[in-house]
Amino acid sequence: MTKYHYLFVSLLILVLTSCQTIEELSIDYMVPASISFPSELKRVAIVNNVPSNGGYILVSESPKAEEPVGRELKKATVFFDGNAQLASESLAESLSKANYFDEVVICDSVLRSKDILPREATLSQVEVKQLAKNLDVDAIISIEGLKIKAVKGIQFLSDWGLFQSTTDAKIFSGLRIYIPSRKVPMVTVNVSDSIYWEETGTSEASVLKRSIDDKELVKEASDFAGTIPVKYLTPYWKTAKRFIYTNGSVEMRDAAIYVKEKSWDKAHTLWEKAFQSKNKKRQMRSALNIALYYEMNDSLQNAEKWALKAQSLAREVEKVDEKTKDNFDMRNVPNYYYITLYVGELQERLSYLPKLNMQMNRFNDDF
C-alpha cells in the first residue's frame, strides 16, 4: 500500500508541475510508538533469551540455466539463526539513542546458554524480579527469537552483458517485555524487515567472489535486527513530503520567497490575503498553503480545517462528481487528488495525537 501511495504522489507531482508551479518541502513530525509504557517506567534492560542453535538449512536451489540470456542462473533459499547477542547490543544502542528512557542497560549473559536442548521459554516472574533487582531497572526487554531467511540469486543481464548476484534477507525477530509486578509478559512483539545486497560483474565467478558470505550476512542482518523494534517501543520522528502552490497571484509568488527564507508568518499573511480573492482556484491554492502553515506550527486542528476548505474548493474547481469520485482518473483532478491525500494524512496525525501526548507525558511537554 505504501509503495502505491508514493507512486501515485510521484505521478501527481508530474501532472501538477506540467500545468502550474508547486514547490516541494519536507516536514518532520513525531509518531507514537505501538506500545505505551507507564511514565514511571524509566530504566530498562535488554536481555538475550534466545537459545543458541547455530548452522543453517539449505531449502532449495535451482539448477544452472544452459543459456544465460536474461535468465536466472541460480536461486537458493537459506534459513539462518541470527546472532541474538549482537542484536541485543544493537537494540540497547538504538534505544539509548532514542533518548526516551532515562537509562538503557544490557545484560551480558545469555539466559538460555545452559540449555541442553533449544526451547522457547518465557521468563518467570522470579527471574524477572531477580534480573530487575540485579540490573536496577523497572522493566526487562527480552529478545526471544531471531531468524533470517535469505534468498540468494545469480542472473545474467543480457542488455548490459553483466552477471548480477542478489541477496535479499528477511529478518524475523520476537521480543517480550516484562515488568516485575506481572506474572506474565506485559506484551509480546513480533517484527520483521528486510536487508538487501547486490553485486555486478563480467563473470559469474567475479560476482560470487564479491557477494556477501554467510558469516557476514548473519552479522549485518543481526545488527540490523536490533534497530527494527525501536519504533514499536518509543515514539519516533518521521519525514514526510509536503507541497505548496507558488503561483496564481503576486501574493502567492512573494509568499513562496518568504517560505524559502523561513518567514512563515509573513507568508501566511499573504496567503490569507490571496484567499480573499473571488477566484476559486486562487482560494483553493491559498487554503492548502495555509493548512501547511498551521501544520508546520503543530496546530493540527486548524490545519485540518483549512485543508478541508481546500478540498471542497478543489472539488468545485475540478468539477469532481461526489458520486463517482472513487472512479476518477487522477490526471483529470490532480489538485483534488493531492489535497484529499493530504487531508487523510492530517486526520491520521490527529487520530494518534492523544496517544503521542500520553507517551510523551514523561517529559512534561519538553520535547
Quickly list its features:
single chain, 367 residues, alpha+beta, 12 helices, 41% helix, seven-stranded mixed sheet, 28% strand
H and E string: HEEEEHEHEEEHHHEHHHHHH
Helix content: 40-55%
Report the strand count. Answer: 9
Count of helix runs: 12
Q: What oligomeric state best describes the polypeptide chains here?
A: single chain
**Uncertain regions: pLDDT < 50 for 5+ in a row?**
1-8, 54-69
What number is the mean pLDDT?
Answer: 85
Give the CA-based shape: flat
**Cα-atom Rg, whole angstroms?**
27 Å
Structural class designation: alpha+beta
The biggest sheet amounts to: 7 strands, mixed
- Portion of residues in beta strands equals 25-35%
Distance between the termini: 31 Å
Explained architecture:
This protein has helices spanning 2-19, 84-98, 125-135, 204-210, 214-225, 230-233, 250-260, 264-275, 280-296, 300-317, 334-351, 353-359, and strands at residues 22-31, 43-48, 56-61, 72-81, 103-110, 139-157, 162-178, 187-201, 236-245. The two termini are 31 Å apart. It is built from twelve helices and nine strands. It is of the alpha+beta class and 367 residues long. The strands form two sheets. Strands 2, 3, 4, 5, 6, 7 and 8 form a seven-stranded mixed sheet that branches. It is flat, with a radius of gyration of 27 Å.
